[in-house]
């Protein structure tokens, strides 16, 4: 069975023999951070933090670490609503349209690129399904992504990028002994260590994947696959744009099962970074039948 769902890969043959308090681990962490910075032009002053867990965990860690409330845009959509619930759960939701904003960079439930107000004084953006097809704005204070979607590494490492100026609005390391406190990850990472036992094979796989990663190739691949499917899905059933192709129509059960199509609300979704080009040729033929 082909899998055109959100995770690009699910198997690895990697194995490491070192532990997380060793010099080898410190070297792995340093190389991973520097490679991520170089690939995506992250400023040297910004923190790049790696959490063993999903993009949802990364988003909740931000919500738990904030010391100022944020207003959430796009709550009429699924993932915007989730972001709102994270912030509310940690008493960091502002129901007023103030100067501090959070939003989802790409709302997969509608295949829709989102944006916040250009004049926001503080910004937190969930880029879990957007990045790196869509790139973060250098002016943002905090953004999140994940290893296992467009980057193509194994599930799952959450990634949080924090601008230096944003730390004044986050908990200090001493203020909360919690694995959701981003300041603890920052402090330990400065020592080449994690605050807890990490998933070393996943970090190693992410480093290997990033070393070979080419964003231009990814963007061209996604655009080509979208164009291919758009040839056989009528415009009225082809919802949105970007790296997730949403089909608002009935799809035969055998096609759903064969290609691992992802169920949305009254739709089926194809995550265009997953699978091989041949899979899309076959899916196009099946949708045309």
Secondary-structure arrangement, i.e. CATH architecture of the largest domain: 3-Layer(aba) Sandwich
Write down the overall geometry.
Answer: globular
Order of helices and strands: HEHEHEEEEEEHHHEEHEEH
Structural class of the secondary structure composition? alpha/beta
Strand order of the largest sheet: 1-8-7-6-3-2
The total beta strand count reads 12
CATH superfamily descriptor of the largest domain: Type I PLP-dependent aspartate aminotransferase-like (Major domain)
Low-confidence runs: none
* Main sheet properties: 6 strands, mixed
Q: Give the distance, in angstroms, between the N- and C-terminal Cα atoms.
A: 19 Å
Instruction: Return the CATH topology of the largest domain.
Output: Aspartate Aminotransferase, domain 2
Radius of gyration: 19 Å
User: What's the total helix number?
Assistant: 8
Number of domains: 2
Helical proportion, percent range: 25-40%
CATH C-level class of the largest domain is: Alpha Beta
Mean pLDDT: 93
